[in-house]
Amino acid sequence: MNGLAFCERNRHYFEYRGKPIWLSGHSRLWPMTGWIPPVTEPVGKPHEGAGGHFAVGRTYHDEVARVAESGGHLFRMTPFWPDAWQGGIPMPFKQLKPGRFDLTQWDEAYFEAFREFFALTAERDIIIQLEIWDRPGLSQWHPSRWPAHPMNPDHNVNYGTDVLPGSDGDGNIVFGERLFYTTARGERPELFALQQAYVQKLLDETKAFPNVIYCIENEGCGGIEWEAYWAKIIRETISDAIITAMPLDANEHTWRSYFDAPHFNCLDGGGTGLRYAMLDTVGNDAGFNESQSRLRYDRIALLRETMAKYYLLMEAYPEKTRPVYVSNNFGKVLDSIWAMFCSGAAGLRYHRCTWDETEEAYRWVRAFNTFLDETSVPFVDMAPANHRLSGHGVCLANEKVAVVYLPTDRPVILTIPNSAGKVRIRLFDCDQGKWISDEAVSPEQTPGAGKGFSVILQATSDTGTAAYVETVK
Predict the structure, then answer these.
(1) What is the model's pLDDT at position 313?
(2) How many helices (H) does the chain have, and how many strands (E)?
(3) What are the structural domains, with CATH classification, of the chain?
(4) Residue 56, number of CB atoms within 10 A of its CB
(5) CA-closest candidate to residue 181, choices 233, 138, 148
(6) Nearest-5° angle of CA 162, CA 166, CA 167?
(7) Closest CA relative to residue 129, chosen from 325, 392, 317
(8) Long-range CB contacts (< 8 A, 24+ apart) of 165-172?
């Protein structure tokens, strides 16, 4: 039975082993093959098996320990990078000779590491989002991708170029004609049988683990028909599976279709409008100067509005209420994890651009979880409440408690629904993970608000401050 489930008190969130869980996390790589070689020694230089990226001094043993140490609970993984075999790295499929695979047979060396990785993460209560398919790895525009892929007919003994184009063809199997995805409508039966065998192997290897979210495709562009087919296969194999999608197309009608399809029960917003709301805020350049401060806040506001759109849909159709989160935040900017939390998301994972020497993202996840632990914030009993704010901020609240993220040092006014007694305000440094201040104040009547009362929240820096506000007697 899957240990991950929906929190019955609030189905916008998950619980794990019966306790509410917010899926914070990070990981330096996304393909499993980037962590395998060598299993017992750190990777010290770039190699293609890591998808063009690498983690200095890391194996999957090390990275699982680092995520756990920060209190993180989310680690996303695609099974392999297409050209990992060129570095002698085991792949899921059996390699008969260099660069030639039999897609009907499996490499036990790969799956031995695969199972150990899942077991290690389960021991640490880390949820693995397993990407069944990987659209970037199928793309034709880089030699380390489709030209090296085991499902390229040039690299397997199972079919020829009459089924899919090889390296000398246009290689356009996921864009344009989307040849790889036509199997879901009955085309290319030879390929379809092998796709089914591969998916079934992944399910057989993971169904005993309690810590899996099944995502149909990383940055998916196969469309709802393709993804719904595989979601049905997963559901038939694992009745209580948590199944998500990451549709790359941010079109409103695209993401809505995943709320309508019966087998999807959460949404990875890393491929929807949330992706585009975040890109300029949390892009690869983590620094913002004075001229960029407005853009930074505007993007946080766009993220907040995108989450509000999802909430609006689920308020109109309560039966569609489900967790929305992001498993592939691009970049290192601190704001994103707090903006997602205060906007009512179920999780966020820092992705890929986190191998800097300062390892800021690890520190930020640790700080975030320190805040959750030391406040015991009842987030499953809270909801986005940005209508209570005036100024630059994002708010999650109930009648007694509010968490406000202050991305700048500009003052923010928070409305207090009950003016009786005092309000305790604790300010937290989201960058360093330390408490800044703790004081009790009396709410003041808000100018122009009739009988409304409010408090002023004032951060001491523009690097990111969280305010924990609670009504006290």
Answers:
(1) 94
(2) 10, 23
(3) 4-379 (3.20.20.80), 384-472 (2.60.120)
(4) 12
(5) 138
(6) 165
(7) 325
(8) 170/140, 171/140, 171/146, 171/147, 172/140
Report the C-alpha gap between 260 and 319 in whole angstroms.
10
* Residues of the chain where predicted confidence (pLDDT) is lower than 50: 38-54, 281-290, 354
Question: How many Å apart are CA 82 and CA 31, to the nearest integer?
Answer: 10
Amino acid at 383: A
- Both tokens assigned to 13: 């969130």
The C-alpha torsion from 149 through 26 and 24 to 389, rounded to 10°, is -110
CB of 58 within 8 A of CB of 28?
Answer: yes
Residues 60/120, Cβ–Cβ less than 8 Å:
yes
- Specify the pairing of strand 422-429 against strand 434-441: antiparallel
For residue 407, cis peptide bond before it (omega within 30 degrees of 0): no
Q: Considering only CA atoms, which of 305, 218, 227 is closest in space to residue 260?
A: 227
Distance between CA 407 and CA 297 in Å, rounded? 7
Structure tokens at 239: 């009745």
